[in-house]
Amino acid sequence: MRQSTLEALETRIRTADRLAPAASTSEEATFLGRLIGALDPRRLILFLSTRGPGMSMHDIVANCADGVLVMDAQGRVQSANPAAERLLGQPAADILGAHFFDLTATASFQPPIHGLAEMAAASRPVQIEITRPDRTTLVAGVSVGRIQGRRKEAFVATLHDVTELSRREAELKLARDQAEAASESKTQFLANMSHELRTPLNAVIGFSEIMHGELLGPIGTESYRGYSGSIHDSATHLLAIINDILDISSIESGTPKLVEELHEPTQLCRSVVALVVGRANQAQVALEVMVDPQIDQLHADGRMVKQMLINLVGNAIKFSPKCGKIEIKVAPTGDGQGGMIFTVRDHGIGIAKEDIPRIMKPFEQVETAFSRNHDGVGLGLPLVNSMARLHGALFTIDSELNKGTAASILFPPYRVKARPAAPAPTATHLHMMSLETSGAVAKPRIRAAE
After folding, report:
1. 408 has a pLDDT exceeding 70
2. 206 plus 339 within the same structural domain
3. Cβ pair 55, 15 in contact under 8 A
4. How many domains does the chain fold into?
5. Which of 48, 186, 247, 423: CA 20 to 30 A from 237?
């Protein structure tokens, strides 16, 4: 924009010089003076040194909205326009002959070692807080240029008032710092409270297990056994929520450390299935695991990877219909880059496209008649997203209402390590089928084809 403005200015002045130099009015000078205020001093100097006779440059500079100071080689001010007088809060008589740095040097701005020459070589303006004689202050953006092609070296400086801009930037920085401090305090509070709650909850869980199992003798009243089971289940559920809060707090505060090791994707999936198959049985949902036979090893934090998959499979179980199927698939990314992708796909209620960004935020849930029948505080997916980012991985959700959801974690190539030379494994296909029985809950049936 600065270059196009300069070109328009040069064209206008040169046209006026060539066609109608006598028609240069004070209004023209005022307009051009405002344009000059937006120019880099070097281009201004170049224009001043090459323009022909005609319009009075004095009129243009006098009407410039920005301050313009011309200094000799020693830095003494030789001329100052009215805008410079206004910005510096001094009349021209006090400015002329004074050193440029005497007018601008403050506690926050000390002159560079090589003086004006160093400022002229700078690629961007310097912001200086100037204190006027009446003790008022302003922030000026100062640019310095060197005047070439003359017998004696000289410099020209432009001063642009950026006080309002600087004030807004300071307000934004203060607001950002306050928001970060509030977020850090919230995270620390949640972490401290979670630790305080977890200790008594473990005691509640332990004693309720003893009561429910009648390890110290019969309870005596049958209904109490049911109550102890409810206490155990409720405390376990609350402890799981607190653990999620602890994980989120730890990630947001930047304290988690990855315990990275090489892991077999097949074994990771087996471990996850073993932990969630009970819920799948209860929901009468089938789990199917498919691992590509050519897949390499994953270099990652095994606990976090399993936690991510448990959260995704748990969500899929929660929102799948009875007799539905959930697919857990591990394969190369397919783009030739060498990454690895874990995908959990269900055929449940799905998520509207516009709701996907919202559910990636902590404590956010999509409110539907179906979701209201299920527990949860909205930490599962945000936790997966945070853990994926810690690994440099990308977490994505592709969903359509009433058709299902595919949640994927794409690990980058540097997380994938080639396995030692050995016979290539065949495809692993695990089929976990829920069983309906009358009475006791049946154990899951595992069929593996290798």
Report:
1. yes
2. no
3. no
4. 3
5. 186
Same domain, 378 and 286: yes
Residue with tokens 């809950």: 441
Domain assignment of residue 229, given as a range: 182-252
Question: How many C-beta neighbours within 10 Å does residue 228 have?
Answer: 19
H or E segment and range at residue 370: none
State pTM to two decimals. 0.52
Please check whether residue 69 is in contact with residue 77, taking contact to mean a CB–CB distance below 8 angstroms: yes
Phi/psi at 80 (5° precision): -145, 135
- CB-based burial label for 334 (10 Å; 0-12, 13-18, 19+): exposed
113's tokens: 């070692």
Last residue of a domain, one of 200, 220, 252: 252
How does pLDDT run across 369-396, given as a tens digit for each residue?
444 455 555 677 888 998 899 999 999 9
300 and 396 inside one domain: yes
- Residue 399's contacts (CB-CB under 8 Å, 6 or more residues apart) are 350, 351, 352, 353, 356, 405, 406
Grade residue 186 by pLDDT with cuts at 50, 70 and 90: confident
Distance CA 214, CA 225 (A): 8
